[in-house]
Amino acid sequence: LRQSQSEASGLKSELKNLTLEGEEKVSGLKQDAERLQVELKSAEARASSEASKAEKSLREVMELKTKATSMHSSDFVAGLQKEIQELRQRCSESDKQLVESRAAVDQLRKTVSELEIGKNHFDISANEEIS
User: Fold this and answer.
1) Helix (H) and strand (E) counts for the chain?
2) According to the model, what pLDDT value does residue 16 have?
3) pLDDT at 128
4) Burial class of residue 93 in the structure, from the number of CB atoms within 10 Å of its CB (0-12 exposed, 13-18 middle, 19+ buried)
5) What is the mean pLDDT of residues 44-73?
6) Are residues 50 and 98 in contact, defined by beta-carbon separation less than 8 angstroms?
């Protein structure tokens, strides 16, 4: 009986230590998830900003095309063509940044998902240990 009580006491102590360790790990995972959520929101905001810039540039191009068709001065048309080329370049750069931002957002979402899966596995393991 004493041996069983001693073993039970040791198991209780071990369970308490595992529980504390598990709580620390869960807390760390929660902090990581919160940090990643903030990073995700920031990346989404950057992606949205880049999309807005690209849309604005496209509108400018369309306005310039409209002006170009209504004007016949070769100097004016040449100037507009140069502006259109510059706007296309800016649109291209914005598109590249948008693709990069979306890739970063996707990676952050994947990492958050992996952390949540890891937390769930840890919670299950902790519950099994307690049982």
Assistant:
1) 2, 0
2) 92
3) 77
4) middle
5) 84
6) yes
